[in-house]
Amino acid sequence: MTDTFSPQRSPKRTEQFRVLIVYPNLPLMLVPSLAIGLFTRIFKSQGYETELFETTHYLSEENSSSEMRAKMLNVREFDVHEDLGITIKEDMMGDFRRKVEEFRPDYIMFSVVEDAFLQALALLRQIEDLKVPHLLGGVFPTNAPDRCMEYPEINMIGLGEGERSVVEVAEAVRLGKPLHDILGTWYRDADGLVHKNAKDPLVDINEYSPDFSLFEESRFYRPMGGRVFKMIPVETFRGCPYSCTYCNSPAQRTFSSDNKLGSFLRRKSMDVLRSELQEYMNIYDPGFFYFVDDVFLARPKSEIFEFCDMYEQFGLPFWFNTRTESCEPDVMKRLKEVGCYRISFGIECGNEEYRQKVLRRKISNDELIRRFGIIAESGIAFSLNIIIGMPGETRDLTFDTVRLVRSVYGHDALTVSIFTPYHGTVLRDVAVRNGWLDDATITRHTTSRSLLNMPRPFLNADEIDGLAATFPLYCYFPEEEWDRIKRAETADEDGLRIREEYAKIYREQFLGETQDSQNDLIVDGTGGCRTNPKDAFRVSPKRLTGKEIQMLSAQ
After folding, report:
1. How confident is the model at residue 65, as a pLDDT?
2. Do residues 225 and 74 lie in contact, with contact meaning Cβ atoms separated by under 8 Å?
């Protein structure tokens, strides 16, 4: 029995060994991938000849997430070519085939999230006849390894973190060694049998930093708050301490705990982070740092201030995603002083009962409204993340979210996503268990049509599409306009005309040209949602029966 992965060949010297990193990505999902940067550094440090093929700038059947966000009024409008310097490419499959034939890699490594898995399969099929050893790693293979290995064109997958295993696999290919003892991998042998190696312990994230040199220059530019910045992604914190049921991040923590690999929650030391930021300044001359942590402020308060003191020397604007729980006045003031340009917050659902019992987010509307008041007073621009079409969601639940958003004074924009049933999430299991989702379904992305097929009184896919398209309008315009906005939920000629009529006003009066102009509108009293603070949605009605709560809970 032999590995399909290790065809008979003579060992190669390290400097002759060629590695192709492949990054399947949704169109115009901007900012370079941190994982690709990490693997670039690792392979180059081994002395391999390393190149990259990525799909970010290619047309595909999927709508561009960034352009769709502008259409959905989630972000300010921008021009891909004029503002970002991007030239759209068309022949993804042909270009990939030519890249492999010309570079002649000895080993190909894919980094794959679920949204791009089907694209990765299509790329693999383009070169299946070339028999190049390959490995698929990333979040999706970790959360759905058996599903990945159902596809015969996949030879090998990596589970968990890959900083060590990708090199061990590369060395096995380079030297013609067997694969049976490489931790953190599964592989298929020549007879089609899948072998499951033991798990790989977690790495020390202080020992690894990315190298973004394989990305073309235009990949660093991204619109933010109506301006375009040259951005570098930065990881300071790996993992998330929360257990939200719509997110697959908790699954990584569970995976590590169940397999006794160590604590998935790890933070970089300030000295290491300072050195990393200085390296980026020296090499890339960025204008903005984009912190990719799941929850940037989920750390001791003293460490937040330590970060601010360290970061002050760089003086660049920065963004991060977090939750409201750590947003105290002194924290927000200090973050503003050192350049915090914008923050994204997830509130997801405005109904407290659903949010707490189904989503496992233990915070009240009253506390959210209070915290957002603190955030608004800091002068830092912020956006709110909303999810529509979750399992068991009704129109009433959606409008509870509308009313909570209308109670959050000072937010700059809304990011409205359609629930995406990712492998590794509790709510995917809930949807499958209730017969609303085929277990074999692989997701697309967070602005694609809902994949759930729910009975009444729950929302159907058409209703979810209509609500996602008009959600910002309901949040901004007075309730007297809601009947007309409801007509705009239907994407026929009249509905689209009404939708664009309101969208034009929303872009001009709420979003403004930049987040700074929107802030001016808030200050002079004409921006933000036109609601009376006394009417704030501080207590939401109970809408779930005991049977529904049981139906929507993990089992």
Report:
1. 63
2. no
* Tokens encoding 401: 């979210």
* Tokens 């009293």, residue located: 525
Give me the residue label for tokens 């074999």: 440
Percent with pLDDT over 70 in the chain: 93
Residue 251 to residues 185, 248, 422, 540, Cα–Cα distance (Å): 18, 5, 11, 30
Give bridge partners of residue 107 from the DSSP assignment: 19
DSSP states of 416-477 as a string? EEE----TT-HHHHHHHHTTSS-TT-----TTSPP---PPTTS--HHHHHHHHHHHHHHHHS
d(CA 233, CA 481): 41
Residue 7 above 80 pLDDT?
Answer: no
Instruction: Express each pLDDT in 428-450 by its tens digit.
Output: 999 999 999 999 999 987 778 99
Using the predicted structure, report yes or no on whether residue 523 has a pLDDT greater than 70: no
Q: Is 48 in a helix, a strand, or coil?
A: coil
Rounded to an integer, what distance in angstroms lies between the CA atom of residue 20 and that of residue 32? 17
Q: Quote the percentage of the chain above a pLDDT of 90.
A: 78
Tell me the residue type at 190: A
On whether the CB atoms of residues 300 and 279 are closer than 8 A, the answer is: no
**Is-contact 348 388, C-beta < 8 A?**
no
Cα within 13 Å of Cα(260), Cβ side: 1
Rounded alpha-carbon distances, angstroms, from residue 343 to 60, 432, 441, 527: 30, 34, 33, 19
β-sheet with 134-137: strand ranges across: 49-54, 18-23, 107-111, 134-137, 156-158, 185-188, 194-196
| Torsion (CA) 197, 201, 206, 211 in degrees, nearest 10 | 10
Position of tokens 């239907």? Answer: 490
Report d(CA 135, CA 365) in Å as an integer.
45
pLDDT confidence of 256, banded at 50, 70, 90?
confident
> For residues 443 and 421, what is the distance between their CA atoms, to the nearest angstrom?
7
Here the tokens at position 29 are 């999902």
User: Measured at the alpha carbon of residue 442, what is the angle toward residues 440 and 448, in degrees to the nearest 5?
Assistant: 135
In the CATH scheme, what architecture does the domain 14-199 have?
3-Layer(aba) Sandwich (3.40)
232 phi, psi to nearest 5 deg: -120, 125
d(CA 341, CA 317): 5
Do 225-538 and 14-199 fall under one CATH topology? Answer: no
The upper half-sphere exposure of residue 347, i.e. CA atoms within 13 Å in the direction of its Cβ, equals 31
Average pLDDT over residues 88-96: 92
Residue 554's nearest CA partner among 410, 424, 399, 444 is 424
Task: Sketch the domain layout of the chain as residue ranges.
Answer: 14-199, 225-538
Token pair of 529 as six digits: 């949602």
CATH class for the domain made up of 225-538: alpha beta
Note whether 412 and 472 are within 8 A (CB): no
Q: What is the pLDDT of residues 35-84, one digit of tens each?
A: 999 999 999 999 999 999 999 888 766 555 666 788 888 888 877 778 77
Statement: residue 8 has pLDDT above 90: no
